[in-house]
Amino acid sequence: MRTTIKELLGDYKKLLHHDITIQGWVRAFRSNRFIALNDGSTINNLQVVVDFEKFDENILKNISNSASLKIVGEVVESQGAGQSIEIIAKKIIILGDNFTEERDKTILQPKKHSLEVLREQAHLRFRTNLFSAVFRVRSSVSFAIHQFFNQNQFFYMNTPIITGADAEGAGEMFSVTNFDLNDIPRNEEGKIDFEKDFFGKKTNLTVSGQLSVETAMMGLGRVYTFGPTFRAENSNTTRHLAEFWMVEPEVAFNNLEDNIDLAEDFLKYVINYVLENCKDDLEFLDKRFAEEQKQKPEKDRASEGLIEKLQNVIQKRFKRVSYTEAIDILKNSKENKKGKFQFPIEEWGADLQSEHERFLVEKHFECPVVLFDYPKEIKAFYMKLNEDGKTVAAMDVLFPGIGEIIGGSQREDKFEVLGTKMKDMNVDEEELWWYLDTRKFGSVPHAGFGLGLERLVLFVTGMTNIRDVIPFPRTPHNAEF
């Protein structure tokens, strides 16, 4: 039976002087005697000591960087520094050779390659210390999300990936069709005849599961969806992906304040879970984060380390600030008056940009911030109209280094008001008849939010490019792997 390196290092005392079987990939082979083995279960390598006089020379010459091995050996206390135990090899089986011509100069040596180069080797970058740490953390974040909602009596819903609705009204959606693109049927007006398509109508890949999951909320009370979403935005920035993962809870009988409380509790729970369960990976990422900061001009350096930043988020109460108050702060700031904002704040009603959000979080309040009660003109049709008639019960959670990490609102629960807003904002009522219908049969106050998984993983790992926190990034002109 195979023992993982994580299991062995976590509870090695009961295995001392016992023979065990381990399997993994060679990270280094020194002096024809010391193998550093890693099996992906932890960022830590296990040292295997080889008595070269007892092994066939043909086996030893094929133990190279990235080759995979099965080793049977005795667990003993280490004589060297840096590890508590090591394995005295008794049997070595080579499971897979490294077939590259220059076996010691492979793509698997991350110090010699940029993150961009490793992105082009997505099938290999999981073997590096950096990306194995990032993706173990991503896995833990995903597990913690499900665990939080399960513990709080939410039901997990799978909403459609193929949809006829545009939840955001942005229009930047990928079309889905089974038409022969060289022979697309058209009607008498010369327009594409979608009635002859597979679904009998124009369909797209979803940008959000929110509208669909609201229908489940109306019967089940507390629900959430966690799945892939897609946006055909032709952007090559470090913040955009064409395919990404969204977490979207929806809760019956919740108002805006309840929604903010839920978002804060949720983020703190997930971050705390990572702090408690990913210590080795976070320590590695923390050191990398510190090294990166040293390369920046002093004025651009983070004021705290990665782990310290995460600890501060779970210890501090998020600052709650109205949009109106935030506009006053931004308008009167030195940065705005001296023209340092790329998008100057001139009047109430401005749509806040990332630079404004980060100023509020990093410079003004120095803690996570929740902005609420936005102008109705800059928010989606489904957000609840406030009594002032000017604002909607929207909320955004802003994090240092990231800006907006969660966006949500109390939803408009009144049938007449929602119908009017849909008309005013040119939302197709015929297409969304079922969504409007949910306000007919015992409508209730309700609220929810959306979290982009990759943005949260960016925050907890200290990475700076969103393409480096998803296994196979999908971006303009890039759909490899």
Reconstruct the topology from this structure.
Elements: H1 5-10, E1 19-30, E2 34-38, E3 46-49, H2 57-61, E4 68-77, E5 85-96, H3 115-119, H4 129-151, E6 155-157, E7 162-163, E8 175-176, E9 203-205, H5 210-220, E10 222-230, E11 243-252, H6 256-277, H7 279-294, H8 306-315, E12 319-322, H9 323-331, H10 334-337, H11 354-365, E13 369-375, E14 391-399, E15 403-410, H12 415-424, H13 433-437, E16 446-452, H14 453-461
Summarize the structure.
Its EC number is 6.1.1.22. This protein has helices at residues 5-10, 57-61, 115-119, 129-151, 210-220, 256-277, 279-294, 306-315, 323-331, 334-337, 354-365, 415-424, 433-437, 453-461; strands at residues 19-30, 34-38, 46-49, 68-77, 85-96, 155-157, 162-163, 175-176, 203-205, 222-230, 243-252, 319-322, 369-375, 391-399, 403-410, 446-452.
The CATH H-level homologous superfamily of the largest domain: Bira Bifunctional Protein, Domain 2
From the coordinates shown, what is the CATH architecture of the largest domain?
A: 2-Layer Sandwich
Structural class: alpha+beta
Q: Count of helices?
A: 14
- CATH class annotation of the largest domain: Alpha Beta
Instruction: Tell me the overall shape.
Output: globular
Please indicate the count of domains.
2
Instruction: List how many beta strands DSSP finds.
Output: 16
Low-confidence stretches: none
Distance between the termini: 33 Å
Overall average residue pLDDT: 92
Oligomer: single chain
Biggest sheet details: 8 strands, mixed
CATH topology of the largest domain: BirA Bifunctional Protein, domain 2
Which series of helices and strands comes N to C? HEEEHEEHHEEEEHEEHHHEHHHEEEHHEH
Q: C-alpha Rg, in Å?
A: 27 Å
Helical proportion, percent range: 25-40%
GO molecular function: asparagine-tRNA ligase activity; ATP binding; nucleic acid binding
Subunit structure: Homodimer.
Subcellular location: Cytoplasm
Protein name: Asparagine--tRNA ligase
